[in-house]
Fold each of these.
Amino acid sequence: MVPAASAADCTEALLRELGWQIGATSASTPQVHGGAVCERADLAEARAAGDLRVQLPRQWNEAQRQVFLQTLFDDPATVCAYAFELGEATRRATTQLQDNPGYRFSALQLGWIGFGIGGSRAQGWQGFRSFGRGYQPTASNSAALDAFYNGHVRSECGVGRQVAQLATQRELYGDTAFDAEFSPGELSIGTFLTLHDTDSILLGHHAGTFLADGKAMRTSQRGRQAFVGAPGFIEHVFDKTYVDDINNQAENFVIVDVSAAAAQALREHGGFAHYDRLNRRIWELAKQLPGHSARRFERLLIERDPGLRRALPAAQQAVLAELDALLDDPFYQGFLIYVHPRGIRPVGYHVVRLLDRNPRTPFAFELGLHNLHTTLYRRWIDARLRQCAAGSASHSQPEQR
């Protein structure tokens, strides 16, 4: 049996695991240098830059150390260090979701979620709203998520976003802790309106404190890691009378990774509003290019099909060159999102894809409400401390599947 650890030992161990280097000083007050952790690519880069360093007065007793170390969980640098863990969990979750050929898209009129001939219970879920509008796990939470990793399920992209968010928590906690820490109601999936009336940790009664930063003005100033794992959507600007493909009227996403160049571009431009304007310019330019064919703009602007590009009239080559230049912006190339069932792709791909499917309206970006750095962060910290104190911290580590 693993012996239980003291609260002080567990606090210090978790802080060190997150990357803090804890030393001693002859000064009478703590010396803290959190650093620009959210701007780093990973923990190794943060440490190399001298981030996450704290020195505590040598004369402090254990109680004084414990009280102060607890305050470090509220330090923005610690939240950004946790974002490294969150980012890795997001990438594991979304990669497994995109790699499951059995997880497919279902048009809205066919129901939000379909579990196939065997029904939802055969794949670990039970419905609580009609027409596939609400489900929660029936047995273990991890087994229910396996339906989306390995089973045959159909849903539209809004549920795809919810599943990616919940799967990220599974990867962050590991199966044992994920099954123990969350109730079935907290892992509800369905329409967004349905979630508000549940115990959902995403949008329901147990979601706690939200960050509302639709145009990413604050997030862009924090750095690249502040984006990772956050939900959002790409939505038509003009009203629905300008939407030709109702099943592509919006694309719900989870942010998977942000390059240093993309983060710098977002910081310089103050968030998404600048890129909403560029989206409109891209849309205006695309309307000037003649011709119609399936996936035409994808082939022209993403795949850069040489034959299709040469076939453009000489007068349109300048328009094409401007489109290329706009889409080469680091944001369009280095801001990676997961959208069901498209998988993980740069956001520029989706802007171009929507030119083919809804050519009569431009699209805009929006971050969704999320609690990744507030309620869910504190729940993970508290869970890790409890597990450590009980001598079972290893259960919180991601398990190999």
Amino acid sequence: MTAIRVRIGVLGMALVAGLAAPATATAAPPAGGAAPAPTVEERRLDGDVPREILRRSGFAEVAPAFTRELGRADSYREARRVVAHEGAALWRRAVDRVQGRGPARGDLSRDDDRPLYWARLGMTRELRTWEPAFGLGERQRTALLTELERTSRGQSDLRLPADAGGGRAGLGKGVKRVLLTGFDPFTLDRDIRISNPSGAVALALDGAVIDTPDGPARVETAVFPVRWADFAEGAVERALRPYLPRVDLFTTVSQGRAGRFDVERTNGAWRGGFPDNDGVSRTEPVPVTGPAAQPQWTTTTLPYAAITAADTGRFPAYDHTSVTEIPSGGTEPVVRPDGPTPGSTAREGGGGNYLSNEIAYRATLLRDRLGLHDSLPGGHVHTPVLEFGPGNTDPAAGAVTDPEFVRNRLDIVAQTRAIVAVAVSAPGPDRG
């Protein structure tokens, strides 16, 4: 999920018109004025493809049911309870569907991450336009939307196992703890059918226990939006700060280039301007607290040598070291295949300058500010682009899924799981 990856990875994908299903109910405008407008993301819900995905997964009922529950709330306190409960329920329902628990409720393959994305947008649209009789101030509505985002993304459901006694974080040879994050689908105006394999990975691995040569590892996951504003408001740091001191490994994951995994060696403090899911562009330094002490670069401490040497699946995995910098004393960007030079200014990390680079930068900067650089393996992994099968790339005539599309997603998920197993059982962090 980088500017580079966007240009390379999604040109072959296409838009499709699918089978229509009933749209979710929308709240009536308040008396005496227009309701708040849905966002760019939310307006895409009216297309045929999102409706088909929701219908074929059994998630078309989510937003209408949420609206009915909201309608029963007679106070802000009750509304907040409803939002927290329903948001968490959506996350658990999506995880359960992907992991094979309960009925599939539709013919869409269970490994699909898209029902969660579109169902969440149905809920946020209802909440954004809801006008209860008790009155709802702007700050209260924002707080409710924030709670819905947090709970429906698994960020309130990170359940690390208790200490088992022993080494770092009290784990020793007991159950190790892994924190993994994924992303929503993106570049939806190019192809509204798009699925993000990193989101599928997060759903497939949430709560999973992976057997490794060094013993079992429990994985806890969350997903993040593809929106500049959420990152600027500290969404990544709020979600990860309580947990990084308690885990044995973390990795942020996003979709990268076609046909390969990349372990990104270096992350840069620069936003390159590619539009996000709300159509917003930002070209600026990555905004963080304490900018006076903000480094231009952060580095992975994932065991990249072990990951890239292991046979983890059908896609090759690379230690990706290239960055783009403005050299010290220079004015023009220069590509550096072997990483940044001293005193340079970031223009692209190994993962580009989009939100995948930014989540990697923020997570590794947080690691360092917590004093964990030398003890906690962590960084960013780019998955291959999730591609549709041959004959299913026409924007006008393509289908929302096909056997090759499903196979590719399952293979990416399985290989990411294998990469995590290698990483968490490696002797220690690698340092570039």
Amino acid sequence: MPAPTSAAGRIDGRIDIVVHLGFAVLMVASAVRYVMRHSPVDNLWTVALAAAVCALYAATAVLAHRGNAGRTVPWMVALLAAWAALVVAAPSFAWCSFAIFFLARTAFTGVAAYMAGGATAAATAVGLFRMSGWTDVAMLLGPLAAGALLTLTYDKIERDAALQRRLAEEVTRAQEQLTATERAAGIAAERERVSREIHDTVTQGLASSLLLLEAAQRSWPEADAREDVAKATGLLRRNLADTRSLVHELSAPGLESGPLAEAVEHAARQHVDNVRFQVTGDPLPVPPELRHALIRVTQSAVANIKLHSDAGHASVTLGYLPEAVTLDVYDDGRGFDPAAVPPPSETGGYGLRAMRQRMEQLGGQLSVESAPGEGTIIAAQLPLQGTGFQPKETP
């Protein structure tokens, strides 16, 4: 198994290193203490058994680190047997029980882990009780109580670690779901935006061109027919330019620079030549996203006048207020019932919805006042505050 790379894995790795180093230091110290307190005859066998315990400990630790549970079990069993014999024969090595306990919990899981920890504590208790001459009960009960305390503490740590892993996994899944949701929402918003752009430019322009060509066909070869064909040709050329603009980041001519009034008037006269245009208030700089929305709303509203209203007169008014910019489009045509507008379909019906969405996305409002036979007023208002623009105070 590769070395752990997560933060928790690095911490576990450092703890293992500390435990192993502690075992080595305690084994050396215990061996020195035993050799200094016992005869050479006793030293020979005890030191040999201690060396065997060290070798078994090193092999078990390496296998446990690699995660090879099947091969770790027999080595751990052999280590526990050798360790029990060592600590009973030479209680001076009892201090190394802590490292043996932690290694057993690393190598085993479930009931086997509890049995290995209990065997370590029992062997240590027997060794210390024997060292006291079988008289000091504290020497017997102390290691058992310490083993129970270590077991409970280790279990608590393992439960907390498992809970943290589950929480981390849940957070990761939630983040992935959120990313997928945001991606889907972004795709849907982009589709809606592109559909509005196409409706307000290409679709409206093509519809107006079709009307002009049909009128020219009815009156051909009169002079009016030639004029209608020329207008249709101009509209188609502008549609081609708009389509190319949509392909290139959906930027419209005159959108990023030039006076807003000129851009709005130009957009209005694309569909109705005799539209009356006026500006009220003192012109103010308008952010690009607001300019874009006002131009598109103008195109869509005036195209609807051309296609549906049969109006004799139409007007567009661009107004500047201290903290907002307004747009009013009026015609004296046949009018309609705003509450009875059919939902969007393949045959149309996107205009009012697209205009309202443009305004609402920028914090503005769009209202429609109309009735059958009484003309139509489309009023839009966009706030200049909150868009990065702060109007200057006049002295």
Amino acid sequence: MALFDTLRRDIARFNPPGWRASTRWMKRRLPTGLYTRSVLIVIIPMLLLQCVVAAVFMERHWRMVTERLSEGVARDIAAIIQVIQTYPQDGNYDDIVRIAEETLALNVSIEANGELPPPRPKPFFSLLDSILVEQISDRIRLPFWIDTVGESRLVEIRIKMDDRVLRVFARRNQTYASNTHIFIVWMVGTALALIGISVLFLRGQIRPILALADAAESFGKGHKISDFAPRGAEEIRRAGFAFIQMRERIERQMEQRTAMLNGVSHDLRTILTRFRLQLALAGEKPELHGMSQDVEDMQSMLEGYLAFAKSDAEEEDVGAVKLSELLERLRADFALHGKTMTYEVEGDDEVEVRPKAFSRLVNNLASNAERYADTLHVDARHSAKWLTLTFDDDGPGVPAEAREDVFKPFFRLDEARNLDASGTGLGLAIARDIARSHGGNVTLADSPRGGLRATVRIPA
């Protein structure tokens, strides 16, 4: 245990609260979709690689080549200066100009009694300026002036030699590596092409996963799935076939359950019909009233069991339901029984659900409140992703320890509040079953009105 405690303290030391907060912030900002994350996994390492390659290239290749070229130009200029200072020349320096142009590819002129221009503003970032200035300072060691700014293909260099000024015009590509952009263009172009190809392949690989997720979500909402076929990589196809087998098993189990309940209900209804007939033939006798009531209770229980077993599975079509119309009918029913119901709808009034099942879900929860409370307020919020219905009443409520038990089939709450007056204990079980068949859920909590709060949350 001491070893685990030490390890936990070490992990906590290397993960301070600020780091955890920044990690949570990044998780909230990062995209959640599989396709987007996969694209980022491909693009981010490639961009980092391109940045590293570009940085290394700029630092090593571009700078090194520029240094060599600037060093060559500075050396040529230094040689010209030494020739001028060592050997006498004619007044026009024609031989120097000719040799510089033919042999060194430099355009040279010498101005008698010339002066250097005032210094030009230094560019914010210029690799050529810094390297060329450094090379001229090291090799010539005379006052000089350079002009590398502008779109001109020439670089002008002026050297102050006693009473003369040597003007040298060199081609820009003689002084620094001017074709570096070609490498960058090829590098960026290749990266974009590879990213495009990777995105296309990723889309093809992720599309089967998205189709499987859509099929599973549709099946969870109770929609009919007919056009799903496993595709993609072997693991994705295996998951798709496993989903199809699971769906078939569930549908087969539901069909068998419904068929069994239909058969049982048919047999029991036949017996109950005979009981009714015998009671009718026996006439109106006080001692038979209890038996007649028992037959009616058995009929009600039988209908409740059958409805729970079916769980509205036979309704496959999804349609639009107007929340305001459904809640208005409930409000009128409350008013008919001398009770008060209010409602508020926020967002889109229409919702795509299975109409009969959804109506039964809302009716079950509203009728439960109507039976045990005097007032009910329903708050419906329809956002882009979720539909949330909140039922707040002022009834006796449900103890916190029993709020999950009341959703169990045939569970009866004997204290404070019986959730199913029919005695079968299926009202909330059917409500939650319908909500989950839509991909949502029903939960219970304390209401601000003093009673029970039932919250229905299903995907929009």
